[in-house]
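Students often ask why inverse folding is considered easier than folding. One informal answer: many sequences map to the same fold, so there is more than one right answer. In these notes we will look at a single instance of the problem. The structure comes first.
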């Protein structure tokens, strides 16, 4: 059963959302490198609860194309506004960061750049190529925006040939307009379908829970993903980044997340990561298997 919030009463996070501080030699080494060279990882910027575990496995997530997004999603803590000019040296900087950190599996993501004619896809392509040159043993996942469904632009991502391409649905159909204001549910499904049709071996998507969705809606979203040949799904708890963002309507219990994992495996997903602390990149290195 889920923990339903009464918005008139203050409530703390349930015990299953409380995590220990990351520890371990590998984490300490990487943290020192990140601080020394001012490397830009989503892991640190987003204070991810799984940072210690992922870094211990040699996995990290990097965000390209700046830190200001052209979209204003109700759940996302990234700033919205007019982005800065493109840093054409960024691909080399990211590749160098991965080399310094000795990352085995890197996840690359970005803000939406609807202000650019190519929507940032050239930087995307060049970043993957730079990583390949400098880190030939590193495997890659690209967590992409929808690029407004433009197939010619998506083709640049496909041409860069990452091992996994992911695009997050984020929420169920009914809540998409509220949660992802400039996005469209069916457009996101079409992007995932197109990726698979064009030969991407592993496609992946993620959804957040606790925004007021119903169980049957979550299951329908999972079914929609499978109907479009998505291989991997991640399901985690939404947490409100600030008072300006959408409120948490429910804290979903670990038991409910386990139920979704079982359902997902029965549907035929290759991997299902479902739990309160799961984020898009959680166990990303295992999604290559």
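Output (designed amino acids):
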């Amino acid at each position: 059963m889920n923990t339903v919030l009464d918005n008139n009463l203050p409530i703390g996070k349930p015990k299953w959302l409380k995590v220990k501080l990351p520890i371990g030699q590998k984490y300490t080494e990487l943290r020192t490198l990140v601080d020394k060279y001012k490397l830009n990882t989503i892991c640190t910027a987003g204070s991810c609860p799984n940072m210690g575990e992922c870094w211990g496995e040699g996995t990290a997530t990097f965000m390209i194309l700046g830190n200001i997004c052209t979209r204003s999603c109700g759940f996302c803590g990234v700033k919205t506004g007019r982005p800065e000019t493109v840093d054409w040296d960024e691909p080399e900087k990211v590749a160098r960061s991965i080399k310094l950190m000795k990352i085995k599996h890197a996840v690359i993501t970005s803000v939406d750049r609807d202000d650019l004619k190519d929507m940032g896809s050239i930087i995307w392509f060049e970043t993957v190529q730079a990583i390949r040159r400098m880190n030939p043993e590193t495997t890659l996942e690209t967590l992409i925006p929808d690029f407004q469904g433009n197939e010619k632009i998506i083709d640049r991502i496909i041409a860069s040939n990452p091992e996994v391409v992911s695009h997050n649905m984020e929420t169920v159909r009914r809540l998409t307009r509220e949660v992802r204001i400039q996005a469209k549910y069916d457009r996101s499904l079409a992007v995932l379908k197109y990726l698979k049709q064009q030969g991407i071996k592993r496609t992946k998507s993620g959804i957040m829970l606790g925004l007021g969705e119903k169980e049957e809606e979550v299951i329908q979203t999972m079914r929609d993903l499978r109907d479009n040949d998505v291989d991997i799904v991640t399901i985690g708890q939404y947490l409100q980044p600030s008072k300006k963002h959408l409120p948490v309507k429910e804290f979903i219990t670990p038991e409910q997340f386990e139920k979704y994992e079982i359902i997902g495996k029965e549907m035929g997903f290759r991997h299902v990561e479902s739990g309160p602390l799961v984020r898009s990149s959680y166990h990303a290195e295992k999604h290559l298997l």
